[in-house]
């Protein structure tokens, strides 16, 4: 009990500090990590710097030499990453890490803005509804008291806690300072959510709302260009702009075949942005860009050890060739995740208030069921989780949250042991790794089920309910 009390006192003290303080401390932490990584790489056989960072830096060298970044073997990213890391070559080799760390901080600022604005907006709508119901004035002025920043349930405090969940997460801080660019792509995923939620608050200003939706589509297309996985969010974004709800297959087909003007704007913005970047880089780098940047990720089959449930199956069948079990493997791998993703999209993607959780759960499912899973992929859903933690706090205790987080970390640790023995001690632990991958898969599904079970609407979520 004393430890729990100490934890709550420490948390209360931290959350009374200005948000600017947390930003400054987080920047310093990331700078320290980058400096440490430089020293570590000089004295250790196991590098701190991500291999992807080295590959992209080599791609930047190819650009400076007037060549294609795809001339660098295993370069399979957007050419924009190579352009971003040109300062690595001409200025300082760690500059890219500072750039990615900046986007790490920007992600936290977006989380703070979305959570704070959403809670205030929901409060406004709830009070408007209650005033209208009891025959009072329906206009709700900005003088509503949301509570001080020190009040436990104030939007300011909850938003600060949500952002700190990202800022002080050691996994996210380490991955960005190792030179991984997933915080960059995650920023644009969350920015799309920000614009769509903001557009819903502009219903009285139709012109502004339409522009926000169009820009959201453009940002979404750019996010797909950077990473293909945001493509799976498209249906959820589309449904949340619908005028009706999906209660049957007939409703679903009607919404798909007869879109609203706002839905058309979203689709147009997405296609315009995606095709623009695709055409530009196709013009510059030809078919090599299409294959390495897009097609490779659809046909990728990685037999190196990773967290995926399907790792051992792919490793054992690697000698059979494409004609052996290729099609069967694809069906086994893709069918379960797409069925679950469709279910989550229809269940949570229709409401603006549940849209962040929809995108989080879809991403979590994609990573859990994917044919290749590495620790960098965890950033994809960890960037979205802070947008939802307030919805879990009402039904899931701190003790339960700590238990599930500990279970998740333990399952990773149990996998890392045989992986270390395989990679550094040359032990034959493939079947051991396969067994631990199954355990990790089960734990992830258990956690997802508990999150869905404990996800709750706040009392402010009234749109489409009245």
What does this structure look like?
The protein is mainly α and 466 residues long. Among the domains are: 180-299, no CATH class; 303-456, no CATH class. Helices cover 71% and strands 0% of the residues. It has 21 helices and no strands. The chain has helices spanning 2-16, 19-43, 51-64, 79-84, 86-90, 95-133, 155-167, 170-177, 182-200, 206-226, 234-240, 249-257, 261-285, 287-299, 311-316, 322-348, 355-369, 378-382, 389-393, 398-425, 430-454. The longest helix has 39 residues, at 95-133. It is globular. Residues 137-150 and 459-466 have low confidence and may be disordered.
Secondary structure class reads mainly alpha
**Quick check: average pLDDT?**
86
Q: Tell me the span between the first and last alpha carbons.
A: 44 Å
Total DSSP helices: 21
Main β-sheet description: none
Total strands: the figure is 0
Proportion of residues in helical segments: over 70%
- Reading the helices and strands in chain order gives HHHHHHHHHHHHHHHHHHHHH
Q: How big is the Rg?
A: 23 Å
Unreliable spans = 137-150, 459-466
| Mass-distribution shape | globular
Question: What proportion of the residues form beta strands (DSSP E)?
Answer: under 5%
Summarize the topology.
Elements: H1 2-16, H2 19-43, H3 51-64, H4 79-84, H5 86-90, H6 95-133, H7 155-167, H8 170-177, H9 182-200, H10 206-226, H11 234-240, H12 249-257, H13 261-285, H14 287-299, H15 311-316, H16 322-348, H17 355-369, H18 378-382, H19 389-393, H20 398-425, H21 430-454
């Amino acid at each position: 009990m004393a430890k729990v009390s100490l934890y709550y006192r420490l948390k209360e003290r931290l959350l009374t500090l200005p948000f600017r303080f947390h930003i400054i401390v987080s920047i310093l932490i990331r700078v320290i990590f980058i400096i440490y990584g430089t020293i570590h790489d000089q004295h250790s056989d196991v590098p701190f710097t991500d291999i992807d960072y080295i590959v992209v830096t080599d791609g930047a060298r190819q650009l400076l030499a007037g060549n294609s970044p795809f001339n660098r073997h295993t370069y399979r990213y957007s050419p924009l990453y190579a352009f971003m890391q040109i300062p690595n070559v001409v200025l300082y080799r760690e500059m890219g890490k500072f750039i990615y760390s900046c986007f790490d901080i920007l992600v936290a600022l977006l989380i703070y803005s979305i959570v704070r604005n959403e809670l205030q907006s929901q409060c406004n709508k709830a009070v408007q509804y209650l005033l209208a119901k009891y025959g009072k004035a329906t206009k709700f002025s900005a003088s509503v008291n949301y509570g001080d920043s020190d009040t436990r349930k104030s939007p300011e405090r909850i938003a600060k806690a949500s952002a700190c969940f990202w800022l002080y997460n050691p996994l996210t801080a380490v991955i960005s300072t190792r030179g991984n660019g997933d915080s960059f792509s995650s920023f644009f995923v969350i920015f799309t959510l920000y614009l769509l939620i903001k557009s819903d608050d502009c219903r009285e200003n139709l012109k502004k709302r339409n522009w926000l939706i169009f820009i959201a589509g453009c940002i979404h297309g750019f996010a797909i260009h950077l990473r293909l996985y945001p493509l799976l969010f498209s249906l959820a974004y589309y449904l949340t702009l619908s005028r009706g709800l999906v209660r049957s297959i007939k409703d679903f087909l009607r919404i798909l075949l007869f879109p609203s003007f706002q839905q058309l704007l979203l689709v147009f913005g997405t296609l315009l942005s995606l095709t623009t970047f695709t055409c530009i880089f196709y013009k510059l780098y030809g078919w090599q860009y299409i294959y390495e940047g897009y097609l490779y990720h659809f046909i990728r089959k990685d037999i190196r050890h990773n967290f995926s449930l399907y790792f051992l199956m792919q490793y054992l069948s690697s000698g059979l060739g494409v004609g052996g079990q290729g099609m069967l493997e694809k069906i086994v791998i893709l069918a379960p995740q797409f069925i679950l993703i469709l279910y989550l999209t229809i269940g949570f993607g229709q409401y603006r208030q549940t849209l962040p959780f929809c995108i989080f759960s879809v991403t979590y499912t994609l990573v859990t069921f994917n044919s290749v899973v590495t620790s960098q992929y965890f950033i994809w859903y960890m960037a979205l989780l802070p947008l939802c933690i307030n919805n879990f706090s009402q039904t899931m205790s701190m003790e339960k949250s700590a238990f599930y987080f500990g279970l998740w970390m333990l399952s990773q640790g149990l996998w890392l042991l045989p992986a270390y023995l395989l990679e550094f001690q040359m032990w034959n632990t493939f079947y051991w790794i396969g067994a631990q991958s199954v355990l990790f898969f089960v734990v992830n599904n258990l956690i997802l089920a508990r999150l869905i079970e404990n996800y709750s609407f706040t009392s402010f979520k009234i749109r489409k309910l009245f």
